[in-house]
Structure formats: C-alpha cells, structure tokens
Amino acid sequence: MDERDFFIEKQEVRTHTINCPSCRQAAEYQIRWLKRTKKPSLPPRANEEDRIRFKAARDYMVRIDDFVRCNTPRCGKRIEITSLQTVAFL
Ligand SMILES: [Zn+2]
Question: Which of 30, 33, 62, 74 is in the most buried spot, having the most CB atoms within 10 Å?
C-alpha cells in the first residue's frame, strides 16, 4: 500500500518572512505547502505491514515552492527558499 493511501492531502498557503540575499530586504511571501493529514482509518485492503506503518505515521507538510521572486522593486531576483524546512511535522 502506498503512503498516499494513509493520508488526506490538502494544499495550504502560509505566509512566511523571507530575506532576499541580493537586496537584503525581508518581506512576507505566500508559500504553498501540501498538508498530509492521517486518515481516520485504513482502507479494508490494508495488510499487517500497512497497519504497522499506519500506526507510526504522523501528520506532516511538504513544501511545494522552492523559489519565490523578490518583491522589492528593482530587485525581482529569484530567491531560493533555504530558511524553511522542506518537510514539517505537525
Ligand atoms: Zn531582492
């Protein structure tokens, strides 16, 4: 059984403050995350191994956006998001 069968997926936008390394301005950006919330129960086709994995599974979020465009006029450079983790447990 795939890990996707364990979770309900929902896209979520969160606001984060990010510093631009080029112009050194901090600003708020809308970052997309994919939120995976554990299902209330496993589908009936789950086997013993799936049940063990499901029990250990936790809700988490995966960051979708890797880059933002600097919103400072005259900069507009691409900023790689390094200040946020790629996976966050809830
Ligand atoms: Zn900038």
Answer: 33
